[in-house]
Amino acid sequence: MAAEAAVSTAVLKLGDLLTRKVDLLRGGGVIGEVQQLKDELKGVQCFLRDASGKQADDVAIRDWIAETGEVAHDAEDAVEVFIFKVERARIVLASFASSLKHKYLLKRFSRSINSIRKRLRGIEGRRSSLGIQDLGERPSDGLESPKRLPKLSEWQKDKHMVSMEKDIELVLENAILNEGDDISISGIVGEGGTGKSTLARILYNHVAVADRFERRAWAVASKERRPRDIVKDLYLQVKSGETMEWEMNVLEGLELSELQQRLYKRLEGKRYFIVLDDMWDDTHWNDSLAACFPDEGTGSRFLITMHTPTLEDDSGFVHTMKCLDSDESWILFMNTVSDGKGVDQDLEDIGRQILNKCDGLPLAITLVGGLLVKQKRSKTEWEKVLEEIESHLNRSSNDAMQAILELSYRDLSAELKLCFLCLGFFEAGDTINARKLVDVWISEGFIPEEGVKTMEETAMAYLEELIDRNMVQIKDVSFDDRVKSCVVHDLVRDLSIRKAEEEIGLEIVNEDGESSSHKPRHRVLDCGQGRFNDSIYGNKEVRSLVVRRGAQPYLFTASFSSYWMSFMLLRVLDFEGCVSMTQLPVSIGALISLRYLCLRNTGMQYIPNWLPRLVNLEVLDIRGLVYIELSDILGKMRRLRRLYASSFYFQKPPEITSLKFLQTLSYVNFYDANIYKVKDMTTLSELGINLFRISDSWLLFHSLGKLENLVHLKLKYCKTLNLDMLGSLSRVTRLKLHGEIPVLPPSFPPNLSHLTLDWCRLKEDAVPLLQSLPKLSHLKLKIAYEGAEMVISHDGFPALQVLVLQSLSRLESMLVEEGGMPELRRLEIIRCSSLERLPEEMMRNLEELKVVASKKIAAKLRDEDSHMISNIPYVRIIGDTGSD
């Protein structure tokens, strides 16, 4: 087993013990020993990169690395077993007995630490004889400085792609916009990394495609995905309206046949365009997909990306991807490393030599470009990259793609490697929720505390680093440019899984196979219709367990209780989408090391009263569970940091003064009788409240005003509540109001920077009040206004940078006086069906414009009004049939 990830993990766990858990070490004289072990392991880290580069040609170095990894794992185990046993003793023993047990455990822990340090000294003694050197790269506790948030909006994703114009034209003409009322199935084929999915995405978002088809949907159809998940993904994109959490829960419980029927009905009588990405053979099509699509002579089209042609139907067009030539490769390379601005001649010479190793594969070019961006345009560093690529190619049969993937991974810091390895927990083609990924990283103990920065800020910086390196791709951003979700290319995901198996003991087990690891430390259960065999037992070392594709009910019966109890050191437990789980096995209450528990969209009807036994639980996700009662539970979960919910309530006032770490609570149903308890949640920074049971607005806002850390507030169902005191919340900078309200409050928080009004259905224009907010930079109005006109004054919205207007169906005109909205950079107007003309004054400084409108309005913008938008760098105009 490789050592770098193991050593990094052990260093992080020792650091956590010395900070957040240091009280467990007092009285035994072992604090110094633990600090010395941490320092010695950090010293070993400095030599691992050199050892990693030399191990291919030296068996002795490979053995040295393996032994170092074993010692690091033993150090991590010693720390976590010690913590587990001390905390369990405090729970089950009386005070005096617990104290005696603690002293005994401290002595044993001290012996373990000293034994590990002795083994480390032996490892260090052999290092110099093997010629392993310190390369001068000091291991850090994280990134040196916070990174900027990526500003890559969804319609900018392909700005780095080059020379696809002919491909686009060919496929449009022959596969998508060709004449004929019969269904046709066409394909894009090519080896991994040639840009098949990128071309398909460009075509999917193409203006002409959006104009022609009434329904469009995209799904990843790889061999690992269940047919029901493919059908569900397609249905969610063609159904009407937004999908609420409770709807997702319902969909998770439907059989494949029911999902097929729903999809079929939504497509009946419509001209539709379907993209199936990464299909390996025709099994999914023949068994599950073909029956979903009506063939009614509407001229519907399918586009399938695949490595080789697989479907028997030969009536469609097949486009084969070609690798880039040297000039095209250079353009893409420059776009990646320097935004197309060019480099010095010395670097260009080296860069072209590097490109020669990429074989014209776009993925290889963007990965190596992302790697070189981090080298600060140093000739020496670029030469080093070239040498390492050549060295790897000499050892690996000239596989350029694998050489660059390996090098991209090796160049990551130890902490970033750990985060990257967690990407293997997710299924192929998954859209990965960014917040969930961050929560998992923190719960695993992979994110260090860095000065004044929160661990969430550090983790987001790590995610942005992986995005900058093109190892992770942005899927969705919020209207305020935050990364909401991301995806991973299948070749990069394969690398993550392979490295995770080698370095952190990941195993992915399905019901047909046995455990592949002797001592797995991270496990994914791929569930289906059968039963797992005994190979999934033996779980003492497992730190994370992800149950994918639902789960069969037998996993949650009493006969399986010993299985759940065996995860002594488990930190992450993810049951998302397990609709067959109607209750949480009581044996899970023994897992006191657990930090993260996801019950999102499961079949649970209640949260058990024993949940507070999970004394270290920090993140609880119960979204999709409806009307959950937590009166006797929440106040006892003392280490909870984040509680995500669709709706939960308290039958009686909860005791919450002990919640000293709670930062996120959303959404909760308060009553007048217990709303005063809000003021006790002093650490809250993000709060979402369902207001339909609250009438005492003075008590609500008085209590909210006591929360000194509250900056993000979300209020639902505001119709009957007086919001006049909303302006008193001076600390709030982000606000969302959801639900019908008769009139706007007379004032808003003075420091407000982000505001969303969702389904408010105001009769009067909100602009006169909102445009006076001095710090408002982001504004989203969705079904928020039912008037016909908006007028922005000459000094209105002085700081506004982003404006989103969505589904304002009665809005007919907008007037912007000279000087209004001087900082506006991005404008989105989505399905405002009566708005036929955009104010020219709004266009002057725009950098991005997105319009989803009727075909008539879209055509007008492209033709007679084109002069208004000709200087905007990024423009996307979609003719939407649903807006006609």
Protein architecture, described:
This protein is an alpha/beta fold and about 900 residues long. The protein is built from 25 helices and 28 strands. α21 links the parallel β11 and β12. The longest helix has about 35 residues. It starts with a helix and ends in a 5-residue tail after the last strand.
Question: Gist?
Answer:
This protein is of the alpha/beta class and about 900 residues long. The strands form 4 sheets. It has an 18-stranded parallel beta sheet that branches. The protein has a 5-stranded parallel beta sheet with strand order 2-3-4-1-5, sandwiched between helices. It is globular, with a radius of gyration of 29 Å.
Helix proportion of residues, in percent? 25-40%
Which stretches are poorly predicted, pLDDT < 50 over at least 5 residues?
Answer: 138-142, 144-157
User: How many strand elements?
Assistant: 28
Strand content: 15-25%
Radius of gyration, CA atoms, in whole angstroms: 29 Å
Ends distance = 60 Å
Taking the sheet with the most strands, its summary is:
18 strands, parallel
Give the oligomeric state.
single chain
Task: Work out the helix count.
Answer: 25
Structural classification: alpha/beta
Mean pLDDT: 87
Shape call? globular
